[in-house]
């Protein structure tokens, strides 16, 4: 694991320690949540990273406008740890636009670790549109743009339906995609959320597909089973503290 990853964890601990002694009189909002997901396989940006079913635990902490996410993936076929990601972000609002700036460290088992920075804009209106630009600042030298929309509605007081769609655009992000600039992939998803006591359960299903000849070639080459389109499903269990 690279020194940058250890430094990021150290900076996070230092930030939370210093923040706990804030001189501001007002109460700072804090939250924590943990979840674990079980999926038919691990999909990332249109790629099937491994064929085996995936177990993906994650933890989120927020302190005021600062947030941290720790996420991991385990391949049940090989019974191996595949990846751990650390994300640090800062969120603020300007009128109806939510803005996130952040940093992601990808600690990978099979290939070199890498790092990204990102900027995300979300508009508080119908379908909650958002757009995020990722820039690789380590192994790669390009960008990746992702646009999303989504809508949630209640079936009852305890059950909700979540629908989502995204599309992405690759910009010479040759670390894992291949050096091309074109539309990359799109995904349609649906999930059902309900709670049992304090635990939220969310089964989901999604369909991911390539959007250009270049992305089709890249996805077929990198994906574990060599396909360009994927249907996958899973269920997650989450708990807020």
Short description:
The protein has two helices and 14 strands. It is mainly beta and 241 residues long.
CATH fold assignment: Porin
Identify the strand order in the major beta sheet.
Answer: 1-4-5-6-7-8-9-10-11-12-13-14
CATH class: Mainly Beta
The total tally of domains equals 1
Anisotropy-based shape: globular
Average pLDDT reading: 89
Supply the CATH architecture: Beta Barrel
Oligomer: single chain
Question: How would you explain this protein's 3D organization?
Answer:
This protein has 241 residues and is mostly beta strands. The chain has one domain (3-22, 30-240): monomeric porin ompg (Porin), CATH 2.40.160.40. It is built from 2 helices and 14 strands; from the N terminus they run αβββββββββββββαβ. It has helices spanning 3-19, 213-222, and strands spanning 30-39, 42-44, 47-50, 54-63, 66-75, 80-94, 97-108, 114-123, 130-136, 143-154, 159-171, 181-196, 199-210, 229-240. The protein has a 12-stranded antiparallel beta barrel. The longest helix is centred in the first third of the chain and has 17 residues, at 3-19. It is globular and about 50 Å long.
